[in-house]
Design a protein that fits this description.
single chain, alpha/beta, 13% strand, globular
């Protein structure tokens, strides 16, 4: 199993093209690009500048012998994003096209929810709104050769509330309604921990729908995005995660999303931190393979 990390860990301290060889040298063989961090920047709004940046990132990965295994698009918040000039739809489409330019097979997007009675009728409205939004993106997916992986989410104002999109069955409903090879699921371990889900059962229930992962830890109260094992007894049960991935038959990369763990790390220790994070990822990826072999 390949191990990957998100370029989000560099924040604004390092250019992406400079991080790529450092991540490869640390032991990662996959990369995850976060378009959410850049798509509002002026250079990404200019097509020529964006193309030059994408070309540089693609070349850096090729030179370093690593692959772009996935990317993250902008956050879809809800109905306010879906009305008016269609700006959110176009932003998501741009991230899909950019993923194709990098060669990343999956772009991760969040399903959305909105206020209501939180009864079955409200659930159905949210389901159909999501199905309609992501169906409209399928022509972009087909043209770019890039799939959309829907990520289990949570409500930051109510982290333990199981809002639409936080449960594996919500994601499966969307994916099964669309019934297309370019629509799948990304499991975020930290979000599942906040929602107090059974990680093993939740992941296993996704089966072949599971196309990507976001691996990070927290204390069950805040979305910290720290390295696995960093929160001790309050953190995630990694035996459950690795067993769930094996039972789901997951074939993608084991991708860290641990930007918070690198905040404030001095340059003198940054390389060492990268190498340690790769060791953590490899340790857990190997545990998935061991669970699969049982």
């Amino acid at each position: 199993m390949r191990i990957a990390n998100s370029l989000k860990l560099g924040g604004d301290r390092y250019r992406g093209v400079d991080l790529v060889p450092r991540m490869a040298g640390a032991g990662f063989d996959g990369l995850d690009f976060n378009f959410y961090d850049v798509y509002r920047r002026p250079e990404w709004r200019d097509p020529a500048s964006a193309e030059a940046e994408l070309e540089a990132l693609a070349r850096a990965a090729s030179d370093a012998g690593v692959e772009w295994v996935q990317a993250h698009g902008p956050f879809v918040i809800g109905p306010a994003d879906l009305s008016g000039d269609g700006g959110m739809m176009e932003s998501c489409a741009r991230s899909i096209r950019a993923s194709g330019r990098l060669g990343a097979p999956w772009t991760v997007l969040h399903p959305f929810y909105f206020d209501g009675a939180w009864d079955r009728a409200h659930h159905e409205r949210m389901l159909q709104a999501n199905v309609g939004f992501f169906r409209a993106l399928l022509p972009e997916c087909k043209a770019a050769g890039v799939g959309v992986a829907l990520e289990n989410t949570y409500d930051p104002d109510r982290p333990h509330a199981r809002v639409f999109g936080s449960l594996p069955e919500d994601l499966c409903e969307i994916v099964d309604s669309l019934d297309h090879d370019l629509i799948g699921i990304c499991w975020d371990t930290g979000h599942a921990h906040l929602a107090k889900l059974d990680q093993r059962a939740g992941i296993a229930s996704l089966g072949k729908r599971l196309k990507a992962v976001h691996i990070h830890d927290n204390d069950g109260r805040d979305d910290f995005h720290v390295l696995p094992f960093a929160t001790a007894h309050m953190g995630i049960d990694w035996d459950a995660v690795t067993a769930g991935l094996a039972e789901a038959g997951y074939e993608g990369a084991f991708t860290l999303e641990v930007g918070t763990a690198f905040r404030g790390v001095p340059e003198e220790l940054f390389g060492e931190m990268l190498r340690f994070s790769a060791r953590v990822a490899r340790h857990l990826a190997d545990r998935v393979e061991k669970s699969r072999a049982r």
